[in-house]
Amino acid sequence: MLRRINDFLSGIKMTVVGGIFLIFSLILSLKGITPAIDPAWVTMIICGFPLLYLAIWRLINNKGISKISSALLISVAMIAAIAIGDLFAAGEVAFIMALGAILEDMTTERARKGIEKLITLVPQTARVVNDGKERTVPIEEIRIGDTVRILPGESITVDGIIIDGDTSVDQSVMTGESLPVDKSEGDEVYSGTMNLYGSVDIRATKIGKDSSLEQLIKLVEEADKKRAPIQRIADLWASWLVPLALLIAVITYLISGDIVKGVTILVVFCPCALVLATPTAIMAAIGQATKKGVIIKSGEALEKMGKVNTITFDKTGTLTYGKPEVSDITVLDPELERDTFISIAAGAEKRSEHPLAKSLVSYAEKAGIEPAAVTAFSMASGKGILAEACGRKILCGNRKLMEENGISLQKAENTIAMLGNDGKAMILIAIDNVLAGIIGFSDRLREESRTMIEQLSSIGMKSVLLTGDNRKAADYMAKRIGLSEVYPDLLPSQKASAVKAMQQEGRIVAMIGDGVNDAPALKTADVGIAMGAIGSDIAIEAADIALMGDDISKIPYLKRLSDATVKTIRLSITLSLIINLIAIILSILGIMTPTTGALWHNAGSVLVILIAALLYDRKFE
In this structure, is residue 607 part of a structural domain? Predict the structure, then answer.
């Protein structure tokens, strides 16, 4: 019952009502009118009850010094003011603290993580093969060693090893790799990833809670639990403010014999401006960031961003666009013109659904090259395609496809090695059983990535690359961007572990990513930042901050804004303490009364709010 009353009175609407009655009380007091019932009583009931409830609850339930809170100090001051008949002072401190609590709650409310969406990726049934017979069973019935068949377009149900078949797998959900990975017998596959082309049989090696996808879900859940909510600054001070206020008030009363002086000290000791310092600055900063397309979910994230000294980046979809584009075209047949070569290759690949094929066709169309007409087409799962165009036999695919068809690669080994060293994907094209050329592909770097890294370096930030790509691809991209610290071949758990290792070194880490595979690292980092426009829902919900326009150039702006916010909070806290100190001295000297002390509070609170408001329009570009 008391809890329901507390929740009702703590709302914004009731606090506004309390503020209106407090204004009525002030107007009547200034006009010298003494009503039968002072309107400030309404304010005290509305705004004072939640404070008293919180103070008593903490006294009963909290342990040690945490029993003493700012709510206790304010409750004592409010009761003391009522005892001497200064109802406006009692109502004012209660209202200011209620207002501060609402502002802080607005800034610390956090979006829920996307665990439910992760769970939807977990297959519910699987196709088990036993003695050549196929049957569909619930995922819970699969045992280690079972043979599971995965058809094209299906999600892989368990972690396992391919024992029959070839395919290409989109495993971006686990590794963040922008390109599908060719898989054949003996290769490992992960649950939750997508089988794109060929039918494969796999031997289950990890099931249930041990599978990669379930471990990913567990990592996000555990990391989320470790994120403690922001502790109110006023409560940090309350452990010594309360005893100190009571001590000074009692000593002042014993020496002067004036109860009003003692009560005034309790009133002015209330940390009203202190309570407002953090939430008002954070609200102003969050408002400015929103105008720039940067969504900050909590005040805690903004405060921590101001302390960050290391920023880790996912590669695909974050520093790059996450889509392969034609980067190199090598024609090995001297009698074949470049445009003709592209026309034949694009025509052969036009019917393929592979991302590299689509990229090649798109390149040809943009270059104004008409893809050659194809008279025959077939796919070799996990290897490439076979086609006929312009009356010629065409093979487009990987090294395995060429070797199986007796195509010599001797004259192209240097080119293949060069592309491989740069971490680029490639399509080998053979015409009439002779290697005619090679087309290389790379993920396109965001134009602003290098400039952004340079700006971060100029303000003392360390930038680190965490990626699921192989070492060559990671090093190639890092070199182009200007990154020296690189961690390649990382699964989701390894990204999170890398972040933890940096934290153990004393670094304050921000993680920037866009995929499901980044979610554990986003939650593990001190601050998680997601690419909002193209990023997965899970990444966005796991993060503390989202870049809604995918404009990574906003990262230096975000850092400067956060630094300024932390400085503003510190300035406001310092000023609030000075204001309180002056008020205490004036109270001891008998110059200040509970009512003037309450008004002094208002002046201090307004000053803190004005300082915070300056953040809203300040330039940080």
Answer: no
Task: Read off φ and ψ for residue 144, nearest 5 degrees.
Answer: -60, 135
- Catalogue the E-assigned strands of 25-156: 125-130, 133-138, 147-150
Q: Quick one: pLDDT band at residue 391, thresholds 50, 70, 90?
A: confident
Residue in this structure with the two tokens 């986003």, named with its chain if needed: 522
Kindly state whether residue 389 falls inside one of the protein's structural domains: yes
Burial of 547 (0-12, 13-18, 19+ CB in 10 A): buried
Model confidence pTM above 0.70: no
Q: Which residues contact 366 (CB under 8 A, 6 or more apart)?
A: none
The total of other beta-carbon atoms located within 10 Å of residue 505's CB is 9
Q: Which of 15-29, 102-116, 188-202 has the lowest mean pLDDT?
A: 102-116
Q: Which carries the bigger pLDDT value, residue 410 or residue 542?
A: 410
CA–CA dist 300, 225 (Å, integer): 15
Give CA–CA dist 522/216, Å, rounded: 12
Domain, as residue range, for 421: 323-444
Q: What is the CATH number of the domain that holds 413?
A: 3.40.1110.10
Helices (H) and strands (E) in the chain, counts: 24, 22
Rounded CA-CA distance 490/176 in Å is 9
Pairwise CA distance, residues 469 & 316, whole Å: 9
Q: Give Dmax over CA atoms of the chain in angstroms.
A: 111
Residue 427 CB neighbours (<10 A): 26
Report the candidate in 89, 107, 203 with the shortest Cα–Cα distance to residue 157: 203
pLDDT in tens, 406-451: 989 888 898 988 888 777 889 999 999 999 999 998 888 888 888 8
For residue 1, tell me if it sits in a domain: no
Question: What is the length of the chain?
Answer: 621
Count of Cβ atoms closer than 10 Å to residue 367 Cβ: 13
Q: How far apart are CA 89 and CA 593, in angstroms?
A: 9
**Contact call for residues 93 and 270 (beta carbons, < 8 A):** yes
Query: Is-contact 40 88, C-beta < 8 A?
Result: yes
Instruction: Name the token pair of 595.
Output: 């009512």
- Provide CB contacts within 8 A for 505, sequence distance 6+: none
Quick one: CA torsion of 128, 131, 134, 140, rounded to 10 degrees?
-20
Q: Domain boundary at 413, 444, 475, which?
A: 444
For residue 313, give the nearest of 452, 437, 204 by alpha carbon. Answer: 452
> Cα–Cα distance between 503 and 308 in angstroms, integer?
11
State the Cα–Cα distance between residues 577 and 565, nearest whole angstrom.
Answer: 18
DSSP state of 468: S
| Positions marked active-site | 314
Domain count, the chain: 2
CB 109 within 8 A of CB 101: no
* C-alpha 506, offset from chain centre: 21
Q: What is the CATH number of the domain that holds 207?
A: 2.70.150.10
Does 173 have pLDDT greater than 80?
A: no
